[in-house]
Amino acid sequence: MLPWLEVGFANPNGSHAAARTARRAVDEARDRIADTIGLTSGEVVFTSCGTESDNTAIAGTIAARGGVALCSAAEHHAVLDPVMHVNGVVAPVGTDGAVDANELGAQLRALREASHEVTLVSIMAVNNEVGTITDMAAIAAVVRREAPGAWLHTDAVQAACWLDLREITALVDMMSLSAHKFGGPKGVGVLTMRDGVRPDPLLRGGGQERGRRSGTTDVAGVVGTSVALAETDAERASMVEQIAALKNELVDGILSAVDGAIETVARDRTVPGVAHLCFPGVENEALLFLLDREGVCASAASACASGAMEPSHVLASMGIDRSVASGALRLSLGHTTTSDDVARAVKVVAASVARLRQRTGSI
Ligand code: PLP
Asked: Ligand 1: distance of its center to the CA of 47 in Å?
């Protein structure tokens, strides 16, 4: 990224030589991303974050086509809120946090029979809070069958490190990514749009991104994003193996050190990077405070929502009782996580839960 923050700091939309050089860097970044996710360059639109990509897919589709938007109850608020804003429909999820394809099919059929035209279905590839992986092939098959006119969007913000995005783009019409979730800079997002899929832009103005998202492109940002995504893709297989082993150490360690601890969703249904546990009878706000004091950075709900200590809508949608959900803890693992980090986290979590239970006299 550095050259594009220094000597290459030109507006890629200009016509002079420096601008053309910057534009080449943007074109190459777009090509690199397209190659990595199995699309053509024209299908890759740069945005400012995952939230903007999700909002564009939903609000832009309803603005362009009318009709009804549908998403799952466990979506990130970047999807859920725009769907609510256009009076959309929410699909229930199972106890694992994923939408059941057959139930979705029945819901889409019922909407069709009631003459509601669903024009947008948005189902996340990986849940940000509990880490559940959605069977996107099953979802796509049902959407194509029961709502053939709908555009299928997926929020794949949490998927990039763990799943081959080529397999996802082959199934959907639009996909959202956020660079900082795979080692890129903060403040860059991607929204893919298949040929012929054209939501109205949220931002109008200079006509950048072929009129699909106006605003001057962050050259260094998109270059960094493209390299981070290509490296993530190249290293994915070995990272998945390495981090899954660390997650086993972490979750098994906590389950054996803390009486009554619950692994929220089975490991074979979740990505290696998310370890989600519940400690019934423990207030997670107090737990987070103790963990933070010991240098263990964790979250009670989704990382984006931490700070707002409301009960998690994701856990509620999975039917998890409030008394259990209030003791929820999400620990994230990534490429820098070591076995020593895991051992320390297990020790600190166990000691902190024990301390809180002593205080309240539970278990
Ligand atoms: N979607 C999911 C699943 C997320 O986890 C996040 C952020 O954590 C977002 C969307 C929002 O992405 P951004 O922070 O880039 O706007």
From this structure: 13
Set out the domains of the chain in order of their start, with CATH numbers: 2-232 (3.40.640.10), 236-356 (3.90.1150.10)
Contact, 41 vs 60, CB < 8 A?
A: no
Confirm if 120 and 151 have CB atoms less than 8 A apart.
yes
Give the position of tokens 């900082």: 180
Q: Each residue of 119-138: b (16+ CB within 10 Å) or e?
A: bbbbbbbbbbbbbbbbebeb
Please list the residues that pair with 59 across neighbouring strands. Answer: none
CA-nearest residue, atom 7 of ligand 1: 304
Q: How far is the CA of 128 from the centre of ligand 1 (A)?
A: 8
Sequence-distant (≥ 6) Cβ neighbours of residue 14 within 8 angstroms: 20
299 lines ligand 1 (CB under 6 A): no
Contacts of 46 (CB under 8 A, 6+ apart): 26, 30, 188, 189, 190, 209, 213, 217, 218, 222, 225
User: Could you tell me the two tokens for 16?
Assistant: 């002079």
pLDDT of residue 363: 54
Compute the distance between CA of residue 355 and CA of residue 13 in angstroms, rounded to an integer. 59
Q: Which two tokens stand for residue 78?
A: 């970047």
| Residue 71 · residue 91 · CB < 8 Å | yes
pLDDT of the residue at 303 = 41
Over residues 215-234, the pLDDT tens digits come to 999 999 999 999 999 999 99
Give kind and range of the element (H or E) at residue 277: strand 274-278
**What is the position in ligand 1's atom list of the atom closest to the CA of 126?**
3
Q: How many helices (H) and strands (E) in the chain? A: 12, 10
CA of 351 to the centre of ligand 1 (A): 31
pLDDT in tens, 68-96: 999 999 999 999 999 999 999 999 999 99
Q: Is 50 in the pocket of ligand 1 (CB under 6 A)?
A: yes
